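Minutes, project check-in
Item: structure for the 203-residue chain
Input as provided by the requester:
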Amino acid sequence: EQNIGQGPALNEGLKHCSYELVARMDTDDICKPSRFEKQVALFEQNPQIDIAGAWIDEFYDTPDEVASTRKLPETHEELKQYAQSRCPMNHPVVMYRKSSVQAVGGYQRLGTFDDYLLWMKMLRDGAVFHNIQESLLFFRASRDMAARRGGWRYAVSELKAQLLFYRWGIVSLARCLKNIAIRFPVRMLPTKLRALVYRHLLR
């Protein structure tokens, strides 16, 4: 009845999912035809996996014109290392075991970092991650994404997330401080400069 944010809404949705494997996407994204087939097959062949993601193709106007591809590492060990500094999963294309997500308390609301916090909780508690090394979804990007991912409030939310990761014992104090030193100034950059960082350094 009220907008409670994405994380709490997803927690509520999970209560109504009948099956163990849950696939997530945004309403304006477009799955590629083989997405579910490949992710389900990965779970069937690797019962130890708790969450499976993939790359995504970002577009603005039409999926025929891909602006960039968001690529991520493949194996669990690579993703554990990657997660020390950046989000290890593309949220719009993940498939996970419902029980594995609920075992860590589900999504936790903190600005726009609900998904990153969930992945870190799962890694902390021993969940196994994997990313399929191809794009399985067209992600509708917003031209104002750089604007939404900056400003004082966003920067403070990111600071809180990094401190949580440190308190959970997932990142060292040195890594926590390094992440803050790199990320905080980027969040405070003028929007046009921040857009250049995203376009040329983070893709």
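Outcome recorded: The first helix runs from residue 6 to 15.
No further action items on this chain.
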